[in-house]
Design goal:
Number of strands: 20
Number of helices: 9
Helix content: 10-25%
Number of domains: 2
């Protein structure tokens, strides 16, 4: 099978993603094999390709927003009930030919204090797709049956792919920002995740202001209903109730704290971020809250996919053939498209 793999980190302009011919993987007990149709291209892939974060091993196949068809199931299917996944039987109903998504969270231990509290996103033994195990920049991949997400029929393959990380983790960030209906929310950065989150916020009756350097992204934000769009150095007339930071710049944390009202919340939706500079306590004072967002749970995935259907969320995508994975990463790095790049695999 064709796979496009990262052997060593390098600037994406140097084309570090290299084609390899690999044998067809065989699923172990509890796993399914997926024939990949689409795979979203995430900023996390860019961070890994350029060495800002470090996958568990190399070479590795990147990609963790994977849509495909189950083409093999290894018996026996998992019959246990995983406490960290809402204490229910997961995976036993999957069938060959079923369309599923593989999100960022590949698996968790199911036994630790976090899994037992339905917070498997914090499991110290959690494994992540395209980071600990091979992901979706390939014609086939393996996945744990207990963690794949059946996809609603209303979502096409290319529309579903961005939802599996940009959407799900963004949705968790909105929840962790303590947003209430009708509030004024600021989004710092306006790429794949934020362009989905703004649609959720409108569905919740919120007003949204967007902070981004790219003029095209500002225009995209206005098209999607932002009441204000500008750079981080500017401010909307109305103070923010909450803010979510998507851009990996520590300086934005201070700027967001300056922009929210007393009692407001800033949530950081980033797996990698530059250092947050020292700042005076007065910027946090007034019962403002600053929190990080780490990954997402299986329940987040189920909830968000259902919300995406009911809210009519539409992903803005740019399609690339799998062989152009390097080009997609370069275009992502240089903000050459709105929304998200999606690789068309099969």
């Amino acid at each position: 099978m064709n796979a496009y793999r990262l052997a060593a980190p390098a600037p994406v302009e140097n084309n570090p993603i290299i084609r390899e011919e690999l044998p067809l993987p065989l699923p172990s007990p509890g796993q399914v094999r997926i024939k990949v149709t689409m795979c979203g291209v995430c900023h996390t892939d860019l961070h890994a390709a350029e060495g800002e974060i470090h996958p568990a091993h190399m070479p590795i196949t990147l990609g963790h927003q994977v849509v495909g068809i189950i083409d093999a199931i290894s018996p026996p299917m998992p019959a246990r009930s995983l406490a960290g996944l809402a204490s229910r039987q997961i995976g036993s109903s999957l069938q060959v030919g079923q369309r599923v998504g593989v999100p960022w969270l590949y698996s968790a231990c199911g036994k630790c204090e976090f899994c037992l509290r339905n917070k498997e996103n914090l499991c110290p033994k959690a494994r992540f797709t395209g980071f600990h195990v091979d992901g979706g920049y390939a014609e086939y991949m393996l996945a744990e049956a207990a963690y794949v997400l059946p996809l609603p029929p209303e979502l096409s393959d290319e529309q579903a792919a961005p939802l599996l990380c940009a959407g799900i983790v963004g949705y968790r960030a909105l929840k962790k920002a303590d947003i209430l209906p009708g509030e004024h929310v600021g989004l710092y950065g306006f790429g794949a995740s934020a362009h989905l989150c703004i649609q959720v916020l409108h569905y919740w009756g919120c007003q949204v202001s967007v902070f981004t350097r790219a003029i095209a992204h500002q225009a995209h934000a206005r098209e999607l209903g932002a009441i204000w769009a500008g750079s981080a150095g500017q401010s909307p007339e109305q103070a923010l109730d909450r803010a979510v930071i998507f851009a990996p710049s520590g300086n934005l944390v201070i700027r967001a704290l300056e922009t929210i009202r007393p009692g407001g919340t800033v949530a950081i939706n980033a797996i990698h971020m530059s250092d947050i500079p020292a700042f005076p306590y007065e910027k946090l004072y007034g019962e403002r809250t600053l929190r990080s967002v780490a990954n997402a749970t299986y329940q987040d995935g189920e909830d968000f996919l259902a919300l995406a259907v009911s809210a009519g969320i539409h992903s803005t995508i740019s399609l690339y053939p799998l062989r152009q994975a390097n080009q997609a990463l370069q275009d992502l790095k240089n903000s050459r498209f709105n929304g998200e790049a999606v690789l068309k695999v099969n």
